[in-house]
């Protein structure tokens, strides 16, 4: 079996990046994002990227770094959120954005990974989401056709993996990472720890190693908080 663990993000991406490519990126805001891989993509200078991701991080963090350097041509996302540069580029016509309902986006990636080219859903019927899409009636209800997503490369963030690539996500950091991992020709996983094969409980594995072609250890991380909410101390 070929060794999957690479020394760093740049070497793990070597030979895979090209202008105009399509990426799937796991994460939700700043939770569960493949930080080291994003930095390496930025440093590579690859451009005209189409990226499927729930959002684009925040200004200057996560995929927001690639927006800042103008390496992204199109985002397939469900949320612009607090990323002002994302919003500015979209409203200025500098960035193409395909808005996709959050559950539909997850299912489009899951479907693509399962070899399903399209599926029908009620989500978006009668709205702008349905514009230009086939509508079909099932049992008297209208559904719209959504296409599966299958990219050139998927970049994901995991918690713990074994040397074979079997991977565990940690709590909410699981988010979009699992469906994104299957929806590409090559999946690169950035993890916090790698343990010997056979160490992980098979019942605890979230993503089988067959989907993971390359891995890096990204730790240690500076755990960033998008919104810090605190409660005022009560008077003694």
From TrEMBL:
Gene Ontology molecular function terms on file: transferase activity
Q: Which Gene3D superfamilies match?
A: Glutaconate Coenzyme A-transferase (3.40.1080.10)
Q: Which Pfam families match?
A: CoA_trans
Span-the-membrane segments of this chain are: none
Q: What keywords does the record list, in alphabetical order?
A: Transferase
Parts forming coiled coils: none
What is the designated name of this protein?
Answer: CoA transferase subunit A
Organism ancestry: Bacteria, Pseudomonadati, Pseudomonadota, Alphaproteobacteria, Sphingomonadales
């Amino acid at each position: 079996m070929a060794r999957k663990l690479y020394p760093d993000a740049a070497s793990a991406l070597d030979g895979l990046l090209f202008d105009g490519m399509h990426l799937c990126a796991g994460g939700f805001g700043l939770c569960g994002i493949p930080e080291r891989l994003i930095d390496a993509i930025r440093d590579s200078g690859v451009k005209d990227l189409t990226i499927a991701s729930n959002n684009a991080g925040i200004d200057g963090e996560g995929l927001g770094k690639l927006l800042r350097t103008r390496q992204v041509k199109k985002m397939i996302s469900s949320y612009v959120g607090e990323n002002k540069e994302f919003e500015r580029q979209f409203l200025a016509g500098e960035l193409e954005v395909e808005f996709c309902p959050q559950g539909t986006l997850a299912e489009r990636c899951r479907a693509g990974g399962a070899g399903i080219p399209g599926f029908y859903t009620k989500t978006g019927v009668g709205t702008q989401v349905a514009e230009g899409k086939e509508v079909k009636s099932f049992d008297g209800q209208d559904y719209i056709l959504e296409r599966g997503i299958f990219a050139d490369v998927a970049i994901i963030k995991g918690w713990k993996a074994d040397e074979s690539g079997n991977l565990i996500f940690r709590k909410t950091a699981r988010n979009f990472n699992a469906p994104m991992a299957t929806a590409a020709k090559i999946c690169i996983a950035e993890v916090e720890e790698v343990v010997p094969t056979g160490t992980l409980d098979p019942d605890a594995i979230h993503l089988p190693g067959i989907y993971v072609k390359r891995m890096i250890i990204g730790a240690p991380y500076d755990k960033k908080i998008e919104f810090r909410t605190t409660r005022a101390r009560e008077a003694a």
